[in-house]
Amino acid sequence: MRVVGKLMSANYRAFGRLSISTKSHHNNNTTPTLHCSPISDHKTLSELRKMASVEAKIAPSMLSSDFANLASEAHRMLTFGADWLHMDIMDGYVSLSLFHFVPNLTIGAPVIESLRKHTKAYLDCHLMVTNPLDYVDQLGKAGASGFTFHVEVSKDNWPELVKQIKSKGMRPGVALKPGTPVEEVFPLLEGENPVEMVLVMTVEPGFGGQKFMPDMMNKVRTLREKYPKLDIEVDGGLGPSTIDAAAAAGANCIVAGSSVFGAPEPA
């Protein structure tokens, strides 16, 4: 039995009393399971029963870490109790006047490959790129654990994309920007070869340190009601003041960057 950092403490108000137990995981980490009691004002009994089948995961966003000491930063986060390491992969500028999916350029497969040599952690890769299919082979070889692509750039080829992701031993997920209706991911969850996670962006993708958008919790509620056992991840502006709202809405995978790495006591 363990508690996953101070960030999880806000969940006590969302779910009532939370006990967090661990079980073995394929990557040799442990993953906490939510056990909820008693019932809080925020959740009905039926809602809590639905939540009982999903696992709480904290995924520090390595975009906010010290890139010059990435391996030691990863080790530090895992020592503090992190379940996943969230890796933001952005395609960046083509020229001064034209950019791909987001304007920033971050890490790629070589960094994932280098980090994999130093950790067995689940590397939760979020692809903010125009052509995610181009990255599947190289990230699979590099040792990525999860491959989350954006629905906005994959409407025409997502069945093939998901198939390729799984063939490389990675777990497929789909992300959506704040302006994208949640209904656009339904086909990817209900197809013959569905994705296994939905990432709801609670800020505009491309930059860290933005303010949390509470309206995005409506998407999370819709997903949790429709898909009770789904991993639902939220990313952007998450910290002690906002994790409560995310958990109450039904998110079980929390990405936190600035609030963790910028904290006096990140644990």
TrEMBL record:
HAMAP family: RPE. The lineage of its organism: Eukaryota, Viridiplantae, Streptophyta, Embryophyta, Tracheophyta. Its cofactor is Mn(2+); Fe(2+); Zn(2+); Co(2+). This is ribulose-phosphate 3-epimerase. Keywords: Isomerase, Metal-binding. GO terms for biological process: carbohydrate metabolic process; pentose-phosphate shunt. Its EC number is 5.1.3.1. The keyword Transmembrane does not apply. It catalyses: D-ribulose 5-phosphate = D-xylulose 5-phosphate. It comes from Ambrosia artemisiifolia. It is an enzyme of class 5 (isomerase). Belongs to the ribulose-phosphate 3-epimerase family.
